[in-house]
Design goal:
The structure holds 2 protein chains of 2 kinds.
Chain A (H helix, E strand, L loop, with lengths): L3 E4 L2 E5 L4 E7 L6 E7 L6 E7 L4 E4 L2 E6 L4 E6 L8 E8 L8 E3 L3 E6 L1
Parallel strand pairs in A: 2-11
Antiparallel strand pairs in A: 1-3, 3-8, 4-5, 4-9, 6-7, 7-8, 9-10, 9-11
Chain B lengths: L3 E4 L2 E4 L5 E7 L5 E7 L5 E8 L2 E5 L6 E7 L2 E6 L8 E8 L8 E2 L3 E5 L1
Parallel strand pairs in B: 2-11
Antiparallel strand pairs in B: 1-3, 3-8, 4-5, 4-9, 5-6, 7-8, 9-10, 9-11
Classes of the chains: A mainly beta, B mainly beta.
């Protein structure tokens, strides 16, 4: 089955710096790669996603890149703010062939210091 | 107008008991899921239902039994609770024609003592 590895497990940055979280996946048939943000005690919330026919997607301060050949994708957060502090999860899915089943990475605890 | 809701939010019970968690979504989605998040925050799928039909059943002890009375509801019943069942259980839903983007419920924190 699919396996997703996520690094780093913890990331500490100063406010205003950029943060990058990287994930690799094992199943070359995976075609959907969402990123979730989970604040303490809250539900995971979808913040951005990318599909296998796109190499990069941006939404304000957040961007995701996908390298299908290398089977890795990354989350980039620019101009970080204290409210960006949370656990971030990457995930991979085979889409319709697996009814959207998500395989998650281990999570990255991001701390943004004011 | 909560999109995906779960009850209860907290559940504290003793080993050996049987308990249920309920999930409802008002998004009109046709697929629903149960995920378990352990103490290390790892999220792992347990089950998925599509239009009331079980389609994903990961390696989960048969003490866990999901039930979907209709496509808006997916409940999780757990028999003979064990200490290792302590975790946060999340329900989620998605729609095929929206490429299965998943929306999570608020979670149920289960503590087995």
């Amino acid at each position: 089955g699919e396996n997703v590895e996520q690094h780093p497990s913890t990331l500490s940055v100063q406010e205003g710096d950029s943060a990058v979280i990287k994930c690799t996946y094992s199943d070359s048939a995976s075609n959907y790669f969402p990123w979730y943000k989970q604040e303490l005690g809250k539900r995971p919330q979808l913040i951005i996603d990318i599909r296998s026919n796109v190499g990069e997607k941006k939404d304000q301060r957040i961007a995701v890149t996908l390298n299908k050949t290398a089977k890795h994708f990354s989350l980039h957060i620019t101009e970080t703010q204290p409210e960006d502090s949370a656990v971030y999860f990457c995930a991979a899915s085979l889409g319709g062939t697996s009814y959207g089943k998500l395989t998650f990475g281990q999570g990255t605890i991001l701390t943004v210091h004011p | 107008d909560t999109a995906v809701s779960q009850t209860p939010k907290y559940l504290v019970t003793q080993m050996g008991n049987d308990k249920s968690i309920k999930c409802e979504q008002n998004l009109g989605h046709d697929t629903m899921y149960w995920y378990k998040q352990d103490s290390k925050k790892f999220l792992k799928i347990m089950f998925s239902y599509n239009n009331k039909e079980l389609i994903i059943n990961e390696t989960v002890p048969n003490r866990f039994s999901p039930k979907s009375p209709d496509k808006a509801h997916l409940n999780l019943h757990i028999n003979s609770l064990e200490l290792g069942d302590s975790a946060v259980y999340f329900c989620a839903s998605s729609q095929e024609d929206r490429n299965y983007e998943q929306y999570f419920g608020p979670g149920t924190r289960l503590t087995v003592t």
